[in-house]
Amino acid sequence: MFGQQNLSTRRILLAWLLVTPVVLWRLLTSVYPFLRTFYISFFDNSPVRRTFDFVGLDNYMALTRDTNVDATLTFTLFFTVTSVALQVVLGLAIAELLNQRFKMRNFTRAVNLLPWAMAPIVIATAARWIFHQDYGLINDIIWRLSGERPLWLVNFTTARFAVTITDVWKNTAFLAVIFLSGLQGIPLELYEAAKIDGADGARSYWYITLPLLMPLIISMIIFTAIFRVLTFEIVYALTNGGPGTATSLLSYLVYLEGFRVLNFGYASAIAMLLFFIVLIVGVLGYGFLRRAWERL
Amino acid sequence: MNIQLISKRRFQTTLFYLAVILFLIVVLLPIYYIFLTAFAPSGKLFTVPLTYVPRSLATARFQDIFGALPIARYMLNSTLLATFSTILALTVSLLAAYAIARLNFPGANMVMIGLLASSMLPGTATVIPLFQMFQTLKLMDTLHGLLILYGSALLPITTWVLVSFLRQVPVEIEDAAKVDGASFFQLLWRIVLPVIRPGVATMFLINFIIGWNEFFTPLIFARGAGVKVITMALSEAQVIGARSEFDVSWGNMSAAAILTTIPVFIITLIFQRQIVEGITSGVFK
């Protein structure tokens, strides 16, 4: 009774009906608010002063003069590069560890997941105690080894490393799980063939494992870098962006400017800067990824 | 095999186990330290050097924070939000995933890419207009308002993972059911859902953990005591009975940290395998 045309129209209608809730939900809670942020960034908008005045590019001009923004961008770069590098190297090492056959392997794999499962805010708040100068766990160990008690959260450099270490502790597990799964996907025959050709473990890792994992490693670098730029909790609870602005990140700056100072217009301009950085990381990363795939 | 080779292998094995032990210490020691802090009897908290094996444990801090804060209410709110945002997100994502994986409609790819792109929009780049919307719509400090935001965050990945699970399942069973005249929802409920149940269960676990751990959203949108969640208890616990801004109770903070963490640890340890499968299926497929 139904023509072919009619059936496929019904199918398409049903399909759109089925995707509508997800699409609408995301449009209303993510896409529209994002566009609105872009719009507000051209206004002087403050609920305290009850203003909503068009100011053109003023907020963006203010960004270029704001020393807090400078400091934040500096730390964002330091934090992203250091943390991603450490996470990728350690993640690969842990994946290799968890891929071996040994007693307690299941237990070790379960332990690896624990930092992943913990709330970022719990880790960030607890880290303040762990980095405590006199009674913290880290300084107890350092003191036993060297007799020193570094002031982690007071000095610029050490505070930056404290944030980075905390982030690496929490998030390396995720990369290790992904890399482990990548390792398990490499056919064993390749290694056997390499062994016959006289390659030792290090060589076959360098010439077989790494090249085959490379697209995965690059996509994980992009993914991890984007999420480093977006980090909020660690800075919020561990350092409050301090000392001074040494460990300030853009999300934290948006929070301060938007919800402490209640300067919505300027906070929106910072948020757009954040989005722009994420976009650049994503586009650059995608370029690298395509080249890696072509080389494979 | 000569002796040199055997001793070389033994050396490598020793080195390997040393690495495993180092890894276990680095992950477990900080967790153990928070546990120690939470249960240390008062007066035993600040010792130099640290005592790693305590003589006695005390539960006074847990009594303190349960007495001073509505912890049970916070945990209930966290449970409600994590559970219902997960159920809602899974339901609508399953509908969308079915359409994308099975109905082969123009725009399916666009929806997939649009979802991925929207998940790259930083939460901080949407929070100010959402805050204004929530004030206008009287959604501030409400559980259903929070539910909208919690659920929204889960949609892109959940849809992606469910699409990947559906694509691994053969279509033939569904075709047979269609011939038998099953209605669309019968098909979805009786045929599709049972087949991809492992995938749905996995996403349930991961989404529950994400919802339970949420902090930024309630920080902005849940300011009344009635809607606060357990992740907000840490900063409140550390100032119970504080005499100044710098008077921080690390013991109370640690007790709150343990209460926040125990549920996700239990889930993770029981369902380790499923969670790993869920994490990796979001990346690979």
Structural commentary:
- The complex is a heterodimer of chains A (about 300) and B (about 280).
- With about 300 residues, chain A is mostly helical.
- Chain A has helices at about 5-40, 60-65, 65-100, 105-115, 120-130, 135-145, 155-185, 190-195, 200-230, 235-240, 250-260, 265-295, and strands at about 45, 50-55.
- Chain A folds into 2 domains: about 1-30; about 70-295, MetI-like fold.
- Chain A contains 12 helices and 2 strands; from the N terminus they run αββααααααααααα.
- Chain A is globular, with a radius of gyration of 24 Å.
- Chain B has a domain at about 70-240 and about 260-280: MetI-like fold, CATH 1.10.3720.10.
- Chain B is built from 13 helices and no strands.
- Chain B starts with a helix and ends with a helix.
- The relative contact order of chain B is 0.13.
- The mean pLDDT of chain B is about 90.
- The interface between A and B is large, with 82 and 89 residues.
What is this structure's SSE topology?
The complex is a heterodimer of chains A (296) and B (285).
Chain A: H1 4-40, E1 43-46, E2 51-54, H2 58-65, H3 67-99, H4 105-117, H5 120-130, H6 137-146, H7 156-184, H8 188-196, H9 201-229, H10 233-239, H11 250-260, H12 264-295
Antiparallel strand pairs in A: 1-2
Helix pairs in contact in A: 2-12, 3-7, 3-9, 4-7, 5-10, 7-9, 7-10, 9-12, 11-12
Chain B: H1 3-39, H2 60-68, H3 71-102, H4 108-119, H5 127-136, H6 143-167, H7 172-179, H8 184-195, H9 197-213, H10 216-221, H11 233-237, H12 250-270, H13 272-284
Helix pairs in contact in B: 1-12, 2-12, 3-6, 3-9, 4-6, 6-9, 7-8, 9-12, 9-13
Organism (chain B): Caldilineaceae bacterium SB0664_bin_27
InterPro entries (chain B): BP-dep_ABC_trans_perm, MetI-like, MetI-like_sf
Transmembrane segments (chain B): 15-35, 80-101, 113-134, 146-166, 187-210, 253-271
